[in-house]
Amino acid sequence: MAGHMGYEKTLDRIMTRFYWPGIRGDVRRQCASCLECQLVNAPAIPRAPLCPLPLVEVPFERIGMDLIGPFHRSARRYRFVLVLVDYATRYPEAVPLRNISAKSVAQALFQVISRVGIPKEILTDQGTSFMSRTLRELYGLLSTKSIRTSVYHPQTDGLVERMNKTLKSMIRKFISDDERNWDHWLDPLLFAVREVPQASTGFSPFELLFGRTPRGGAGPD
């Protein structure tokens, strides 16, 4: 359940429960020798700087939302993923989709907010699914403000973009031997992200949302 999340986060995760002399070197060598990571990780591409939005302190008051895919069609006919990230806690949610129609996106969004509550603001790009009448009507019913970004006037600090990159990389590493069941990995992969401390906050998304440290897969019991 570690999720192939790179040296720093893997080290942080292990050191919450274990320590031995030379742990940093051992973890660095293990990450560097991981075949799945070498095959999937791409060189970083410089991008234009992004402008940060004001800080949010209330969980799920503002969320970012985006789509990733297409992936190989799963046995349950899923090809895409709707990704949502809470700006206050960095807590991610994700829902597999068979298509990216406005109806499918709206249903997945409603599924998530039924668990976490109705956000005041939802940040998206100007993709067709997010610009649809269906989404506008849903936002109206929820009294939720829609904030849209563009390549000309970026308004976000890249939070959702980073989550997209992380989740896509993790999915591709875990489906290399089982493409037909990649959607079954979503929940364990999300848990791996949720339990790792974030550099921007110093805490894991799970801790910030629930006020406790999760019992994760790296524990001795």
UniProtKB/TrEMBL annotation:
Q: Name one Pfam family in it.
A: Integrase_H2C2
Q: Which InterPro entries does this entry report, sorted A to Z?
A: Integrase_cat-core, Integrase_H2C2, Retrovirus_Pol_polyprotein, RNaseH-like_sf, RNaseH_sf
Domain called Integrase catalytic: residue spans? 55-213
Supply one GO BP term.
DNA integration
Q: Which SUPFAM superfamilies match?
A: Ribonuclease H-like (SSF53098)
Q: Name one GO molecular function term.
A: nucleic acid binding
Coiled coil start-end: none
Source organism superkingdom: Eukaryota
Identification of the protein by name:
Gypsy retrotransposon integrase-like protein 1
Which organism does this record belong to? Gasterosteus aculeatus aculeatus
